[in-house]
Design goal:
The chain is an alpha+beta fold and 283 residues long. The protein contains 13 helices and five strands.
């Protein structure tokens, strides 16, 4: 997987993308007149970080890939990186060429299949590239896009029903693409990542925009409001639990809440058959 500029210069691509997101006002600089670039200019980043403009230019263009930790810390401060983004920046500079690793097929442990069968809330297993590897019946009743064999990021960006499913689709898409960045790390040649990023870059302009931002963040626990076509809105918590080489994802409501009642209704309907239309009206 090459970088967005096709150069393989991941550190430079990241620095350029992040400086374009920092406004002069946020950096403590006057906005100025005619600015030809969004965000900060290279020389402004260099000035604020206490390094020479020539050295910063070499960093962005990949001519120096061994900056000191002190330089990287200064750049992280100027670019307003949070702890996750700062760690990612340090990792980009520390990355070294390595021999390709033989990837083991992602497999769901037998005990996790047993656990899925006993859980009474929506639960599924995903791989590193957000491929759905296994799911319990309530997960697929909650969303048909959680069937094994599908990819959650692909569904999120390319399936119109997924946009209607998420109350805050824009945030879900941005968080998921940023999580993919974090998951890829230095595994840029992993065939599954290359295939997925290539497909989404060709098929989704929104993905291209988000990918070019170089946002990184872990997609772990949180809450979400989703709209089910049968039972309506559900406010659910999400936990992601690592199990061997895969991730167990569990959605659950607050106990005795309206969403808890709706989820029990959905479970009862799913037990009787497919759940894919509005509730019938009573005469």
């Amino acid at each position: 997987m090459r970088d967005d500029d096709g150069s393989g210069n991941r550190l430079g691509s990241y620095l350029r993308a992040r400086r374009e997101l920092v406004s002069p006002e946020r950096a403590g600089l006057p906005p100025g007149g005619n600015r030809r670039v969004p965000g900060l200019r290279r020389e402004e980043v260099a000035l604020l970080a206490g390094i020479s403009p020539d050295y910063y230019l070499r960093l962005e263009r990949g001519r120096d890939r061994n900056p000191s930790p002190q330089v990287l810390e200064s750049l992280a401060r100027v670019l307003h990186l949070d702890e996750v983004e700062r760690t990612y920046l340090l990792g980009l500079a520390a990355a070294r060429p390595r021999a390709p690793r033989r990837k083991r097929p992602e497999q769901v442990p037998a005990r996790v299949h047993q656990l899925l069968a006993h859980l009474t809330v929506p639960a599924f297993v995903e791989g590193r590239a957000f491929d759905v590897l296994a799911a319990n019946p309530l997960a697929t009743a909650l969303s048909p896009r959680l069937r094994p064999g599908l990819n959650r990021l692909r569904s999120l960006l390319l399936d119109p029903e997924e946009r209607a499913f998420h109350q805050d689709w824009d945030r879900a898409a941005a968080d998921s693409v940023a999580a993919l960045r974090a998951t890829v790390g230095d595994d840029t040649d992993d065939p599954r990542f290359v295939e997925l990023v290539g497909e989404l870059a060709l098929s989704s302009g929104h993905f291209r925009t988000l990918w070019a931002r170089h946002d990184v963040r872990p997609l772990g626990g949180g809450t979400a409001t989703v709209h089910h076509p049968v039972v309506g809105d559900l406010h659910l918590h999400r936990d992601k639990l690592p199990v061997d080489d895969v991730i167990l994802v569990v959605y659950y409501p607050d106990k005795d809440s309206d969403s808890d009642e709706k989820l029990r209704l959905l479970a009862a309907l799913a037990h009787d058959g497919p759940v894919d239309g509005p509730l019938p009206r009573t005469p």
